[in-house]
Amino acid sequence: MLNLTGLLMTTRMFGQRLMHSSAIRLSAEKSPLFKLRQRTGLAYNLCREALNKHDNDVDEAEAWLKAHALAHGIQRASKVRDRSTREGLVCLSVSRENNMTTFVELNCESDFVARNQIFRDFAISITEQVAIGFKNSTSYKLPSGQGLIGGLKPNEEQINKLQDQIAPLISKLGENIKLSNAFHLKVTDPDDATRLFGQIHAQAAAKSTDLNEISAGRFGSIVALRLGEKASRDRKQLQLMGNRLCQHVIGYSPSYIELPDNIRKHLEAAEKEKLENKSDNGEHDDTYSDDESSQSSRNSRDDWPSIMDQTLIMTDDLVVRDFCKNNNLSIVYFSRFECGME
To answer: What is the pTM of this model?
Structure first.
């Protein structure tokens, strides 16, 4: 026969234990130590020390912990500042309107840290901060760009704020970390016919916001295009064309838009001599028409350092010059970036 008295007593005791455990948990969640650990994610002993120093004032303890982390990071940074930093990420932020790009290079010592998610997230975060703060930047004149785009550099106050964020990261990841470069490019074309595009290759991280597309990786490029009167204004189509030219810059690494006349003269003379030597040696194929021979000659210019003379990446015979002409576009500026390169 079931012992109802014993069952009732057991149930009552179990219920009391549950209520007691819940009360302990609720009490713990209200404790300053729990709140501080939840806010900072730092170790128990550090949070307890901070609370002891500030009479259990959570806000004061949190401020002290942040200052402590910063100071510790600065000390660590001073110890590792002479170490070489050739790894890391190059980052680009491109505005939705394609009228502003922001470039940031964040370097570290090893590929191991460069692949760390904390480092990657920080690189994206710091690029977003630089992009948002462009209004307080200092302008500088670009050596190229035909006056259609201008350069901006973060001011000293902005850089100092960014450096303050890097110090705790050094403490956390244990390597020297440097903000090697940061700048903006902005369209200054009075006719509003110029667009800026950016592309990252070997992408490691990305973020999409209402204002910008941000990405980070090993290689990157920026291309500025001026739209002719008959050029498409469709944003999606322009983005595809801009991205293709950015990919070309990363892959081919050109040095010029158009070759200076003195260099072109020598390269054309060398090209002509090479064709004549082939003809003298009986290597000329009479089955080729004049147009095909001309096309073959143009394709041999892929090793020329001018983007307009090269065959567009991922095509067999479409020269960049013809691609731009067909789409009524002009390249007015480009830059290529590789992490760790001067």
So the answer is: 0.74
